[in-house]
Amino acid sequence: MVRNSRSGLGVIVAVVLAAAAPSAQDATSVIASASKALGVETLKSVQYSATGFDFALGQAPNPSSPWPKFINKSYTRAVDFEKGASKVDRVRVQGEDPPHGGGQQPIVGEQPQSQVIVVNASTPWAQELEIVMLPHGFLRAAAANKATVEPKTVAGKKYQVVSFVGKNKAKVNGYLNAQNLVERVETWVDNAFLGDMPFEAIYTDYKDVGGAQFPMHIVQKQGGYPIFDLTLADVKANAAVNIQPAAEGRGAAPAAAPAATAAASEKIGDGMYLITGGYAAIAVDFKDHITIVESGQSEARGLAIIAEAKRLIPNKPIKYVVNTHCHIDHSSGLRAAVAEGATILTHQLNKAYLEKTLSVPHTLNPDEAQKNGRKPVVEAVVGEKKVLTDGTRTIELHHLQTFGHHDGMLVVYLPKEKILLEADGYNPQPATATPPSPPSPFTVSLADNIARLKLDVQRIVPVHLPADNRVVTMAELAKWIGRAAPTH
What we know:
- By secondary structure, this protein is of the alpha+beta class.
- The chain contains 11 helices and 23 strands.
- The chain has helices at about 1-20, 25-40, 125-130, 135-145, 300-310, 330, 335-340, 350-355, 370, 440-455, 475-480, and strands at about 45-55, 70-80, 85-95, 110-120, 150-155, 155-165, 170-175, 180-190, 195-210, 210-220, 225-235, 265-270, 270-275, 280-285, 290-295, 320, 345, 375-380, 385-390, 395-400, 410-415, 420, 460.
- Helix 2 (about 25-40) packs antiparallel against helix 4 and helix 5 (about 300-310) crosses helix 7.
């Protein structure tokens, strides 16, 4: 009797555990039902046209705003689900009026763009997700990847959530409603600044297309804000698509992030060094420490800048790293500064945002800060100006006013050297390029702020250095805005 009692209890416990845990066996039938409802086997390929918006990830004008918007005047996409291929062609126009935020604003006229993805053994997972995140792509991937399923209630609505582990070791979850339609797909991808970044796609307004169901409204979000919002106008099921790999630079999605260029440097004053080889940075040799201005667009660039600063100025700690603004390409190197134990100096508008963002876990692709467990230390530049000096060397941090690219933008002025480091006010084009008409409002604002601050600038150091490494002067800035530059 005792033996039977124990055996019965074991069976009960096993049943309870099985009911509580996600079930792979149930997932097979759930995926099959959803695939039938959506016509996954019927839909081998699809081509659709749409209008709507795309948004520039990490380029908001301030920490409390969504990513800036661009209008998609036209948008077409072809997807071959069986071959794992996608081709997008779109025409974008300016969406923010007046221009506010980054993303290479303002667009003058129409900007055509193309992207081709043909999945092979070396295709990065982030690119594969462009197909996997589609409802039919998700169900195909779930069926091939030992998916599980569990019921969930979200905002009072019941779902069957089908999950599998992606190639980056993050879960991919699809939310199936009572009609077996995929309403949402979510996962996480690595981002140098935003860490384990949420990536989700939301699908509504399903419509029958050639015997399959396809959503007529698609919204994608990354980092909590939309990156696409498309309303489909026409969908062709099983369209004859022939998607061929594109040559790099002709619509091909880059195979991988380019390798970091080795940092180089030049002396621009007594104890002042310009670090080149990527986004520009300046290292300053103060009496008992090093201050670095700007950290680059990636952890690799941030580490290279730090290493070069230490080579130029040995046996001193890096005390400060100045952040001009919190756009993703000017803040992705800050994790290297966190790992170093440096204090980040930024305008007060950015302080809380950087503290929060630089504390987000980076578990999908651990960086040095994640490995050593250091937490960010961020100090605010309060007001319009901060001076750093040891009595011998001096740099000034100035807040730009009415500067549409970013509301919390700092420029750095070296008064003795008469050098100004600026980001995204003036990004030099080839010396032979024709200035735009009208000029960028960001460039005009930079010139206006230099005049307002009465800065005697003999050399401008754009963080986005010119490709030919020429010295940029106020005369060049004046040419680019079509009026005389301030003189002192």
